[in-house]
Queue: 3 jobs
Job 1
Amino acid sequence: MASDRADLVVVGAGTVGGWGSYFAATQGAQRVVVVERGRSGMGASSRAAGMVRAQGGTPTTVALGRWSIDFYRGQLARLGTDSGFRELGYLIFAETAEEARVGRERVAMQKAAGVDARWLEPDAAMELNPELARGSFVGASYLATDGCIDPPRNVLAYSLAMQQAGVELREHTTFVGLRTERAAGGSKLTGVLTSAGLIETSRAILTGGPTLCEVGNAAGVEIPAGAVRHQVAVTEPHPAFEVVRQAMGFDLGAGLYWRLEEGGLLFGMSNPDEPPGPSREIDWEYMDKMRSRLERYLPVTAGLGLRKAWAATIDYTPDHQPILGPALTRDGDRIEGVTIASAGGHGMMWGPAVAKISADLALEGRTEVADVDDLGLDRFDEQGRSRLATDPIALPFPTEVTWSTPAPRTR
Ligand SMILES: Cc1cc2nc3c(=O)[nH]c(=O)nc-3n(C[C@H](O)[C@H](O)[C@H](O)COP(=O)(O)OP(=O)(O)OC[C@H]3O[C@@H](n4cnc5c(N)ncnc54)[C@H](O)[C@@H]3O)c2cc1C
């Protein structure tokens, strides 16, 4: 088996691994190799809806969204290309007095975390989107600087950035295990095993989005990262949506979101009752339910044809928060040199920040982007239950993940 060397090996060329490798290469790592079992972006990253918000449910997720939006805004100047970020503003609706009370508290937390979120009464929200049905909500939180990116363009942007930074991308190369040796308090990384041979290295970042649990299995690390079907569709154009700016919307109770897309409306939603597991088949019956829910908020969408629709497997974590921290064996021992990185199903809105943090942790062991001390694998028990409260602003992901027994391949 051929052997070579790298300063850092990144597993997975999705938005987390792609941007992570770029950040690492631009902050001192000499030889950065990305191994991707398929093609760059072929996981969740090219299939996402592109919703981006700093309206997080915790101070940390606000910080991740805020950092990522700043990054998207600065991309063109920094790299000569961008991920297509558009500022549209985002309304997150409350349908009951209790939801409004919780929403106001959330806005206060977000303001304290440094973003200019506001609570709006229905009339003020309808000024931002005149298509909203009066009576469908009692109020909404709003952040004018939230927006969206174009996910395929983001794949292009990080692929170009990787190339500019001298990152070596090896497509059709599968990560199959870690090579480690004993060290004080556990073990330390000496190499990464791939389908094309061994890469000697003392540093690795493991990503994998909806397949991160399997990547963990190959590494001998239990990672409670789940995968479940998520559906998105785009309506045909309509004059109501042929505008430059209109606030995006999130029906938080149902987990339905929408935004402008090429003169029509893009909308997406997961079925909360669906069991976890990968799937790319469209559930048309559920799509009809999504459409009815959308019509409740936006009656103008009734009868509009669909221009495209897709289903893809989205990643999630049991507490809807990212995973960032060192790899741990099943006995809880640290594998020195190995960093785990997951955006927990929010890779468009938190991806750049999660990627930057993973590079910081891999190279320097610390980060200034956000306080991630609580986001490591040590927050989960043997059943994958988190000791953190669930981020309240999220899709209705399942709260549990399906585990498969890790079969470590080390050599
Ligand atoms: C339909 C849909 C809509 C979404 N909408 C949004 C949204 O609006 N906003 C938002 O913030 N997020 C959204 N997401 C979630 C977002 O897309 C993901 O959180 C994000 O793309 C995850 O990025 P990643 O790099 O971790 O994973 P991926 O993009 O899945 O990349 C992981 C890569 O690892 C590779 N890999 C796996 N195993 C191995 C191995 N053994 N060896 C080598 N390579 C391997 C895979 O091939 C893949 O390319 C959506 C997701 C879906 C599916």
Job 2
Amino acid sequence: MALITIDKEACKGCSMCVKACPKNVIAISSESNKNGYFYAEAVRLDACIGCAFCALMCPDVCITVEK
Ligand code: SF4
Ligand code: SF4
């Protein structure tokens, strides 16, 4: 199983990572961060395959992937 970490305070809620993930691991939270953005969070981490598409797509480099 791979593991992603999302820096929720750096996230701008653009959804690029949500669209990039082939496994629907990431969703946008119903709660906002301190900057007022609805941030991305990993909701199905067990499905993550570590492809890093999410991290590559994030314009703000909020996501790190470990294998
Ligand atoms: S590493 Fe791949 S499978 Fe895992 S959350 Fe990112 S895009 Fe989805
Ligand atoms: S791509 Fe980056 S900034 Fe956009 S929602 Fe995902 S983690 Fe947040």
Job 3
Amino acid sequence: MTDRDWQEKLEAFFELRARQISEVPTLDDLCYLAGRNPLLWTDQNLLSDLKSHVLDLMQLDQTSKVLEVGCAAGLLASLIAPKVGKYVGIDLAEAPLSVARRLKLANAEFRKGDGQNLPFGDREFDAALCYDVFSNFPAFETGEKIIREMLRVVRSGGRVLVGSIPDQNEIEQSQQISARLAAGFGTQQSRPPLQTLVKAEKAGPLARLSNYLGLTDKDAVREIKPEIVSYYFSKDDFVQFGSRLQVETRIADIHPRNPYAGTRFNVIFTAK
Ligand SMILES: C[S@@+](CC[C@H](N)C(=O)[O-])C[C@H]1O[C@@H](n2cnc3c(N)ncnc32)[C@H](O)[C@@H]1O
């Protein structure tokens, strides 16, 4: 599978889910759009545990300016923005962002952008996070550029959090937890299955010529099957990367109420 294949399938997954929501999103919608199971993540105790853990790890307060890379429809924004001075979320997929803007969070801004090439100047933020995003990357190297970019846009001494990374030493335990949760939730299916994402192909020179000559009358389209896969990572890769960049790097557990605690980890870098 090429880079383009998995990225397109992943983007289709979030894009198509977001297109199902036409109103102001409910908490259930936000979980669904972030790829989180609403039957689990609408629990207020779990959300509040996640919120206080993230605020604490990133040392955020009412004056902080924070960036989230891979914000989806703003689930974390709705937790973090009210506790900081300014929140900026970016995501590759446009449809989740337009849902996020309907939340009307007073100090939040949502922009389309790629975490590998952030549209911000050096040291513009006090802190940055990329939470539950790496798990969708097939290799550590895919996320390296995102970490470099977050460290670039955060002020010296500010925190960069890469969060909720599935630990490759705990695959079996993680699968057992998934199976247990799935059994507990039963077969409740709250949303219709996703169809395919239809994308117009940019016509090449030959197609443009044949369109011009009237030999074809249809634009080329491609159908992309949505797909999300969860991958596992080694803590060592993050520690070694941090030491190559010569930044302080710390591994921490995810928040204690998360049913996957012990099988996922957080990485906190301190910008130079
Ligand atoms: C699983 S959701 C996580 C949403 C949110 N951070 C949370 O924890 O609820 C992952 C999001 O990351 C986005 N994403 C993946 N790669 C990205 C990249 N290179 N730049 C920006 N966003 C990206 C996806 O489009 C998707 O919306």
